[in-house]
Amino acid sequence: MFIFIILLTFTSLALGVMSIYWLFNRQQGTLATRLESMDPSLAFVENNPMTTMAERVTEPLNRIVPISAIEAAKLQKQLMQAGYRAPDAPMAFHAIQVSLVVAMPSIVMTVYFILGGNLRTYAIWSLLGCALGFYLPRQILRSKIANRQQRIRWGLADTLDLMVVAVEAGLGLNAALNRVAEELKVPHPDLHDELELVNLEIRVGRAREEALRNLAERTGVDDIRSFVALLVQADRYGSSIARAVRVFSESLRTKRRQRAEQASQKAALKLLFPLTAFLFPVIIIVILAPAALNLIDLLGGSLQGGL
What we know:
Elements: H1 2-24, H2 30-38, H3 49-56, H4 59-64, H5 69-82, H6 89-115, H7 119-168, H8 173-183, H9 189-203, H10 208-219, H11 222-237, H12 241-306
Helix pairs in contact: 1-3, 1-6, 3-6, 5-6, 5-7, 6-7, 7-8, 7-12, 8-9, 9-10, 10-11, 11-12
């Protein structure tokens, strides 16, 4: 048992050191070098540490426990919505899950070997560790998707205002998207990256409608889907893009105001349980503690006088 624990610990440390080494000492690809020399904004397409880590570290684990094609496609979509666009991101995510499923019982085994616990308790905590190692990466991924979608949703109103200004100034739709992407680099980097990818796809020859629909798929935000459908319809039927975007911007701001009002109304209900659990007992103790102490002193004095 002790030798098995030593082997697991050594394997985990070796994988961690190899991951860090390959992450910071990798060679940049030829395509990434050419893209960066042509346009620095295109470097993030291939210049991603996740790709190298997925290729070199996760390959042995994925050979042992392979991932199905359906699960890989589903994970690829979720990871793109979280901001991880590397083609090997599903493999890396699956390898992290497998590593945690193996590492959690190993940690429990080490702790119980040191503390000297019984076998039945070890089996229960090992099962809980396996479940935690399997569901924790998925929960973190869902949290990252929700946070990124929230940031995109809040930055969409500024994007629409900038697009209205750019289109009314005489720019075409492609030039307006390029200009808006440049302006959003600092305040809304998530939208900046997505619009840069749209511009890149259009630049390499993909149809604008397809590039915009890919934008909706990568983000997974309902407002983005509505915005993309609006641009596609306006471009297809030749209607005024500036007027359509302005109307959509006003409706989006109204929707955002309604969401804020809904959140403020939910806040009172959410504060009820913390107040009941933490604040009200303290108030009761502060108000009734002096009277209780006086009552204890009075009853104590009465009992001593009677005796």
